[in-house]
Write a structure and sequence with these properties.
The complex is a heterodimer of chains A (913) and B (209).
Chain A (H helix, E strand, L loop, with lengths): L12 E10 L2 E7 L3 H7 L6 E2 L6 E2 L12 E4 L2 E5 L10 E3 L14 H4 L8 H4 L8 H11 L16 E12 L3 H12 L4 E4 L9 H4 L6 H8 L3 E4 L2 E7 L3 E6 L2 E12 L3 E3 L12 E3 H10 L7 E6 L3 H11 L3 E7 L14 E3 L1 E8 L3 E8 L5 E5 L2 E5 L2 E3 L2 H6 L2 E5 L2 E6 L4 E3 L37 E3 L4 E2 H9 L5 H8 L12 H11 L4 H4 L13 H5 L13 H6 L3 E5 L2 E6 L3 H10 L2 E4 L4 E6 L3 H8 L12 E7 L5 E11 L2 E6 L4 H15 L4 E4 L4 E7 L3 H8 L14 E6 L2 E6 L8 E7 L3 H12 L5 E2 L2 H10 L34 H10 L3 E8 L11 E4 L2 E12 L4 E9 L8 E6 L2 E8 L15
Parallel strand pairs in A: 1-7, 8-9, 8-13, 9-10, 13-26, 15-22, 16-17, 16-22, 17-18, 31-41
Antiparallel strand pairs in A: 1-2, 3-4, 5-6, 5-7, 11-12, 12-13, 14-23, 19-20, 20-21, 24-25, 27-28, 29-30, 31-37, 32-35, 32-36, 33-34, 34-35, 37-40, 38-39, 39-40, 42-45, 42-47, 43-44, 43-46, 44-45, 46-47
Chain B lengths: L13 H6 L4 E4 L2 E4 L4 E4 L2 E5 L5 E5 L3 H9 L9 E4 L2 E7 L2 E6 L5 H14 L2 E4 L4 E7 L3 H6 L15 E7 L2 E7 L7 E7 L3 H13 L3
Antiparallel strand pairs in B: 1-2, 3-4, 4-10, 5-8, 5-9, 6-7, 7-8, 10-13, 11-12, 12-13
The chains are: A alpha+beta (913), B alpha+beta (209).
């Protein structure tokens, strides 16, 4: 516990204290402290259990990189408690251990680790075969980190922000601040991202003295937006940076990106290097300088560079006594008189712990003599490796030269920080080859039975595992990574990447440069899925102008693309009966609605549609279908002629946008003098259908709607309920019907006027489900429902429409070839022999037990009192009376082909005068 | 036949206004909110201006019609010119938008009819096809940054320009007038998506910290 000799911590406010709960204990904390720091101050040393062997793990990096502090916080799993701020009343629990962190039954795996070699899941549990499902279930249950509680209430929804800047600097250390200031003073708009709560980077660890001049300048510069507690996790094409701040996802576009992410001390590989009490030097400094918590009392420093002496000095300053500095180099000058013993050309062989670290064993590499030093901290001051993950993602490449990684390929728009005091981006190489390997590092070596030399803490990969993987042939860095899973854990190689490369190089007798590095992919730090989902939090909804009327009328809505459409109001059967016997009305505002204007308007329709349009007179409408270049049906609809050079055309709801683009494409391709106007969002439409439709319309229209002057497939412009409308007399549902198109803004008054007028005929609104039954009774196909990506008009029952005598239309050639060959299958109507049974759409049509087709639409017809449908069957079987079976749920259910349409075959009702 | 009462047009936000207690009054055949706008957050006012007249001029001569309306020179891409009672925007080489500030724009409409007839261009009344919002206040950029990938800073989207862009997944036209200040943006959105966009802006603005 901080006894007062330490600074309070750069992030800590000592005046505000509170408590939180950890495993039933009340833990005191200061505002600004991380959960991990508060727990450590309260005496907690084991924070989690390791992934594979369930070994005790304690705080390590204190930077959110390693997996040693993952816990469950308020229901969120895998929270990095070393950096997660403590908050009052939090509930923190352990994970990956049972029953407790201190005593974990699955530690058994550590004892029997001999039977769990690298890639054991590829080799074990496959025999006997019948046992595999049991093994799989067990392995799946045990594996993984943390448990997601799917019943847990969702956390705050993430937010999303787009940021644009001339320059984005990633990293708020001295180098980052210098770059940001330089760009800002050149007049650029700068965004500076820093993942900690304060600017300063490593300077905060050396001697925290509050804001310095550089920090103040950055914070006050008008051109710099400082984003604290913001972590960049991906760098993508087009200078796009993905970052998060809390649960807000940031997408940052910058003209130039400067990566100043500093470096990390690479850990040493030694026996039991994963025990609580073993830290990288920076971890100890972070705990003390940022959070005001000393990591221990007596430390041994292990180093292979001048960092060791500097660290020892720092430790002394924060009140930790230095038991020894163990330097792997054969000779090194401390530069000044030291207060601690120096062991040159020595290395630490192993660490020993009970509840806490108690000693380390060091060995002289020349004499081979070893000795034990008592301590409660082992601080590893390895050579610093720059954090280059983001640069690698951007496409920057490195080559290994003179013992360092150096920039080999630059990327325009991407640069890196050049702190004046240090060499940037030279990945140092630890002198593995110059030192004797510690005993037990080889496969099956001495000491391996009781001690492990961890390379990858995330995945519990030991040096022995890498030896074995290379021996099995996985000697390329990418295959070694995949087979051993080193670099594949939560830290994504930040802690172990360089060690794996160097070990691979040593084992394969290649230079480090020839081994190369693994691929860096986003995210470089774990990101909560809720944060990523913020980018897709908005789901557009299209509402017709009558939406709220439907809502007030208790409509049950269904999704039709982005549209919300009423599926039904009072039940589809009732709605069908209303249309057939009296009157109904449906909102069809979702239809695509286009105007085609210009001298070549008719020519465009002639080429787009299968049928003829040049003979359509103004005031008349026609049904048409269209194909793509392969002769496949893509859409259908009705178009009416307003004038010689003006048509009004409809398309199906789902295809409206695509068909408008289709028209634009062919207009441009054929260079037609046509203007296309999309009126889908401008016009509402409603279909008034039923035997009394004419009487209702007549009461509200200012034009003659008698059968003689407004016959079937007529098209009129006039006022309905005082609103200028376009009215098509069509009959998709098979009754006398009018499709009334009016401006959106006046749709509600028109609809309400029609509903009021229709009251005397007990008018009912009907929904999409009733419409589907009605159209099926009439035998009208739905393109996309009854057709698929192989359906053509000659087989779908639309051969009457195809005018091969036209000069050209899209799909003519393939349809001509198909006509010569003859159709292979046909879309036919059928009824079930058991009248009431409705089988699922898509069920197979079988003949002699073999599938020969499928059913596309099925419904129970309230009008006919039986189940009806459409099905694709082979041409030779497409004859009335042919019996076939439909396979459903393991049974073959009999049906028979019947003539279409099922209802009003002569169209008497439809064409009623 | 009984005389049919004149239908009163409604904006796509009509129901939203009613549900939120906004007083509506009838003006020029429309139900209009009586108040100037809705305060959706500190420093942000959202106003439903869907009733304002909107026209598109289509065809090869669209640009020259824009030039004739706005002055002697043709409009540059994405440029907005302000004439007495409307904004003129170049939307594409063969399409301009003319967005009036008021519901009643008979004079402007007649002028456009005349110009289009003379130059054989197609005039489309977009008043009922697009809703229009005005978002104003000092948090305009902050809220837009949460809605659109467009650079909405004065450098990326300066006053006197427009941008056809994506806002919360839908295609809209953003228009930043020169006056009265850079802290106002007009949003033109397809009618059927207007309520969704309005609600989303309101929600996002409410969550601004």
């Amino acid at each position: 516990v901080n006894d007062g000799s330490l600074p309070t911590g750069a992030f800590v406010d000592p005046t505000r204290s509170f408590t939180f709960q950890f495993e039933g204990r009340t833990i005191p904390a200061l505002a600004g402290q991380s959960i991990g720091a508060a727990l450590y101050a309260a005496g907690q040393r084991i924070f989690t259990r390791s992934f594979k062997y369930h070994r005790p793990r304690g705080l390590f990096c204190v930077s959110g990189d390693c997996p040693n502090c993952l816990m469950n916080v308020d229901g969120r799993t895998n929270v990095r408690t070393c950096v997660e701020p403590a908050r009052p009343e939090q509930k923190v629990t352990h994970q990956n251990a049972w029953p407790s962190l201190e005593f974990d039954c699955l530690r058994l795996f550590d004892t029997f680790s001999r039977h769990l070699p690298v890639g054991f899941y590829y080799k074990r549990f496959h025999r006997p075969r019948w046992m595999w499902p049991i093994f799989e279930h067990t392995v799946r249950h045990i594996a993984g980190l943390g448990r997601v509680d799917i019943h847990h209430a969702a956390h705050d929804q993430g937010a999303m922000e787009y940021v644009h800047a001339d320059v984005c600097v990633i990293g708020g250390g001295r180098a980052g601040m210098t770059e940001a200031l330089r760009a800002a003073e050149d007049g650029g708009q700068v965004v500076l991202l820093e993942r900690l709560p304060q600017l300063g980077g490593r300077t905060l660890l050396v001697a925290y003295a509050g804001d310095d001049e550089l920090t103040r300048k950055c914070r006050s510069h008008a051109n710099i937006r400082v984003c604290l507690e913001t972590t960049a996790f991906g760098l993508y094409e087009g200078n796009l940076i993905a970052a998060f701040s809390g649960n807000t996802l940031l997408k940052i576009r910058a003209g130039r990106i400067v990566v100043c992410t500093g470096g990390r001390q690479q850990p040493f590989v030694l026996a039991n290097n994963d025990l609580p009490g073993v830290f990288p030097g920076d971890g100890v400094l972070r705990l003390a300088r940022l959070y005001g918590v000393p990591a221990g009392q007596r430390a041994v420093v292990l180093t292979d560079s001048d960092e060791g002496q500097a660290l020892a000095l720092q430790l002394q300053q924060i009140g930790i006594s230095v038991a020894a500095v163990v330097d792997q180099r054969p000779a090194a000058e401390p530069g000044h008189k030291t207060d601690w013993p120096m062991y040159l050309a020595n290395t630490v062989l192993s660490a020993t712990a009970r509840a806490r670290l108690i000693s380390v064993l060091i060995q002289d590499s020349k004499s081979g003599q070893s000795q034990e030093i008592h301590c409660d901290l082992l601080c590893m001051a390895g050579r610093r490796q720059p954090a280059v993950e983001l640069l690698l993602q951007a496409g920057v490449r490195f080559r290994h030269e003179d013992g360092c990684w150096k920039i080999d390929k630059e990327v325009p728009g991407i640069s890196w920080g050049k702190s004046p005091s240090r060499q940037p981006l030279s990945l140092g190489e630890r002198g593995y080859d110059s030192l004797p390997s510690p005993p037990g590092t080889g496969v099956g070596g001495e000491g391996e039975a009781t001690s492990k030399y961890f390379v990858c803490l995330c995945e519990d990969v030991t040096e022995k595992d890498l030896h074995q993987a290379v021996a099995e042939g996985f000697d390329e860095i990418e295959t070694l990574k995949r087979y051993s899973t080193a670099n594949m854990g939560p830290c994504q190689g930040k802690m172990c990447g360089q060690n794996v490369v160097e070990i691979c190089a040593r084992l394969t007798n290649r230079p480090v440069g020839a081994v190369g590095t693994t691929t860096s992919r986003p995210p470089v730090v774990p990101v909560e899925l809720a944060t990523l989902a913020a980018a897709h939090a908005h789901h557009p909804v299209r509402r017709t102008p009558l939406h709220h009327w439907h809502e007030a009328s208790s409509a049950v809505f269904m999704d039709a693309g982005l549209w919300k459409r009423p599926e039904s109001y009072c039940g589809p059967a009732e709605e069908v009966r209303s249309v057939r016997s009296s009157l109904g009305m449906i909102d069809v505002s979702t239809l695509g609605k286009f105007e085609i204007v210009g001298p070549d308007a008719v020519e465009l329709l002639e080429r787009i549609y299968l049928n003829r349009w040049s003979d359509l007179r103004p005031g008349r409408a026609r049904y048409g279908a269209m194909c793509n270049e392969d002769g496949i049906l893509i859409d259908d609809g009705v178009a009416g002629r307003l004038a010689t050079d003006r048509f009004y055309m409809t398309a199906t709801t789902g295809n409206a946008d695509a068909i408008f683009q289709w028209l634009e494409l062919w207009k441009a391709t054929w260079r037609l003098d046509v203007t296309l106007i999309d009126r889908t969002s401008a016009m509402a439409a409603m279909n008034l259908a039923g035997p009394h439709a004419r009487e209702v319309l007549a009461a509200l229209a200012d034009f003659d709607v008698s059968g003689k002057s407004f016959p079937y497939m007529g098209f009129r412009e006039g006022r309905v309920a005082g609103v200028p409308c376009r009215v098509l007399r069509i009959g998709f549902v098979g009754e006398l019907g009018y499709e009334i198109h009016c401006p959106n803004a006046c749709a509600r008054p028109v609809w309400e006027a029609l509903m009021d007028e229709g009251k005397k005929f007990a008018i009912r609104p009907f929904g999409v489900e009733a419409q589907r039954i009605l159209r099926l009774e009439k035998g009208h196909i739905l393109i996309g429902q009854d057709t698929d990506a192989l359906s053509n008009p000659l087989e779908a029952g639309l051969e009457w429409m195809v005018r091969f005598d036209k000069a050209a239309f899209i799909g003519k050639e393939p349809l001509l070839r198909l006509q010569e060959m003859g159709p292979r299958s046909r879309l036919v109507g059928f009824t079930m022999l058991d009248d009431a049974r409705v089988l699922p759409e898509g069920s197979q049509v079988v003949d002699d037990g073999r599938p020969v087709g499928r059913i596309t639409s099925t419904r129970y017809s309230p009008t006919l009192g039986k189940s009806i449908g459409l099905a694709w069957v082979p041409r030779e079987r497409a004859r009335v009376g042919y019996r076939f079976e439909i396979r459903w749920n393991g049974m073959d259910v009999p049906a028979t082909v019947v003539p279409l349409p099922f209802y009003d075959p002569d169209g008497i009702r439809l064409k009623s005068c | 036949m009984n005389p049919i009462p004149q239908a009163v047009a409604r904006t796509p936000l009509h129901e939203w206004h009613v549900r939120h207690g906004v007083v509506l009054e009838i003006q020029d055949g429309w139900y209009l909110p009586a108040s100037a706008g809705v305060n959706i957050s500190d420093g942000l006012i959202l106003t439903d201006q869907s009733t304002s007249a909107k026209f598109h001029v289509l065809g090869k001569e669209a640009a020259s019609i824009a030039g004739e309306l706005a002055g002697s020179t043709d409009l540059r891409a994405n440029e907005v010119r302000e004439i007495e009672s409307a904004y003129i925007c170049s939307l594409a080489p063969d399409r301009i938008g003319v967005y009036a500030n008021s519901t009643n724009a008979t004079g402007l409409h007649n002028l456009l009819i005349e110009l289009c007839e003379k130059r054989k261009a197609e005039l489309v009344d977009m008043t009922g096809a697009e809703a229009a919002f005005n978002l104003s206040g000092h948090e305009v950029e902050a809220v837009l940054r949460r809605l659109t990938p467009l650079d909405v800073s004065p450098a990326g989207f300066p006053p006197g320009t427009c941008a056809a862009t994506i806002v919360v997944g839908i295609r809209v036209l953003l228009l930043r007038p020169r006056a009265p200040s850079r802290e106002a943006v007009r949003i033109y959105v397809p009618w059927d998506l207007a309520e969704y966009l309005w609600s989303t802006i309101t929600e996002v603005a409410g969550n601004l910290t």
